[in-house]
Amino acid sequence: MNEKEVEILEILEENARVPMEVLADMVDLSVEKVEKIIKSLEEKDIILSYSSVINWDKTAGKDGVAAMIDVKVTPKREVGFDEIAERIYRFPEVKAVYLMSGAFDLSVQIEGKTMKEVAFFVSNKLSTLDSVLSTTTHFLLKKYKHDGVIFEPEQKDKRIVVSP
Amino acid sequence: MKQVQQQYLSKTASKLKPSGIRKFFDLASQMDNVISLGVGEPDFVTPWNVCEAGYASLESGYTAYTANAGLLELREEISSYLSEQFSLSYDAESQIILTVGASQAIDLAFRSIIDPGDEVIIVEPGFVAYAPAVTLAGGTPVSLETKAEDEFKLTRETLEKAITKRTKAILLCFPSNPTGATMSEEELQSVTDVIEKHDLLVLSDEIYAELTYDQTHYSIARLDGMKDRTILISGFSKAFAMTGWRLGYVTGPEEIIAAMLKIHQYTMMCAPTIAQHGALEALRNGRDDLEKMKKSYRQRRNYLVKAFNHIGLSCHMPGGAFYAFPSIQSTGMTSDEFAEKLLEEERVAVVPGHVFGAGGEGYIRCSYATSIESLQEAVKRIGAFVERHKAE
């Protein structure tokens, strides 16, 4: 991985919608060269997807609940935590799975339409898996910042408009 | 009543011209939807750990004066910072004063060295405060015009021409506001014998030293024989996005610093205590944030300069600071006309080059310390403006 590739990744991570010509100028390469680099990064699964951070609370009719579940599991010989992690992340309602250090093993983020739906997932799908020893569910009350993005940013530039 | 008030003003104060930037500030601040490329400061807010250090200092009760020269701990930190980053060696106790921004350091320096009749060469286009600061100290500013074909660098020939019997000092600012010009070790070396021959003092304003994009900054004080005749001025505003904290510093030969400290203790007492605590944190743990900001400026510089050349405003690639200085001569307008019409017609604020002194006419200063989205929109608007006025 060279410096230009890292620079392109950093810019895209911040804003995946930056026009290709602008991106090329920013890193001082030609458009063709940048397109080639991005394509190769995609093929290597280094760039996995281009998603948006959306504040659904500001939209009507898309209410839901999210929870973070601390899961204790029994790791298996040969595969460790990977197998149980995979069984969990395959559920479409699961948005994220991380292996953690500390008091529990897996942190599972889940989204559902209602609290009942989330509760049902925990009791009927997650807890019943063989390797799962225990779960602790924390419901998310408000998102302040997600993936480095502040949800209600102060937009105003506090600088005076012209200065020496 | 106004007449009566006027009669009390000193001749110096009455003669002092208001900065040419003021007019554009007044115009632009009355308009909505303005994209400003006229701001001479970072678009980043001060890194959070530095703000935290400011809070913490208040919580711990550090609300009193510091030593006149500033917290010794901070001066020691500056001393090792200058040594690590720029290979300069200055004694914390006798050669460093913390000031209220680099601006106060400039004022102190001129007041310490100027006698009536002394001339100070100001390299222009340059920061708007230099010449008035010389005048206020009783001296005569002499402008030295740098040219686009020299990439706005100082040359031996132009320097020789500006020197008279009365010349006492020369003020340099590289990387430059407004041109973004930088000078390499070799380029600086090429003027030192002229400086030595005429026994000049150098005031080197290196406030943008951390913001260079193609090569590391080289201080003139590093060159043989220069340290003893150089007053080096810098600060925290640009590198650490701390403009509002008002904290700069000055280093130089012991006796000159001692004289500056005398003036400083009578006129300022000391720099703000809270800012000094913030600055300590910035020097100790601010490098990562600085590098991040620098990378972002470099990307935006690359974009903006290419975009200007693309829309027909020829622009050299500035090596440092966060300004592009494109030529607007292809439009046939003066920089004042250009800036005023651009603001009225397209709602983009830039600073006309003439306010920065000799050699600035025919250029505009555009800060790229603003978001890449705003820069794109600004380029679109300026492009349309240039296109429209070329056709006339």
TrEMBL record, chain A:
Organism from which the protein derives: Guptibacillus hwajinpoensis
PROSITE patterns in the record: HTH_ASNC_2 (PS50956)
Protein name per the record: Lrp/AsnC family transcriptional regulator
Matches recorded under InterPro entries: AsnC-type_HTH_dom, Dimeric_a/b-barrel, HTH-Siroheme_Decarb, Tscrpt_reg_AsnC-like, Tscrpt_reg_AsnC/Lrp_C, WH-like_DNA-bd_sf, WH_DNA-bd_sf
The keyword Transit peptide appears for this protein: no
HTH asnC-type domain span: 1-63
GO molecular function, a single term: sequence-specific DNA binding
Pfam families xref list: AsnC_trans_reg, HTH_24
Keywords from the UniProt entry: DNA-binding, Transcription, Transcription regulation
Automatic annotation (TrEMBL), chain B:
Cofactor: pyridoxal 5'-phosphate
Top EC category: transferase
Enzyme Commission (EC) number: 2.6.1.-
Matches recorded under InterPro entries: Aminotransferase_I/II_large, AspAT/PAT-like, NHTrfase_class1_PyrdxlP-BS, PyrdxlP-dep_Trfase, PyrdxlP-dep_Trfase_major, PyrdxlP-dep_Trfase_small
GO molecular function: pyridoxal phosphate binding; transaminase activity
Annotated ranges, domain Aminotransferase class I/classII large: 33-382
Swiss-Prot/TrEMBL keywords: Aminotransferase, Pyridoxal phosphate, Transferase
One GO process term, biological-process aspect: amino acid metabolic process
Origin: domain of life: Bacteria
Family per record: Belongs to the class-I pyridoxal-phosphate-dependent aminotransferase family.
The protein's name: Aminotransferase
UniProt source species: Guptibacillus hwajinpoensis
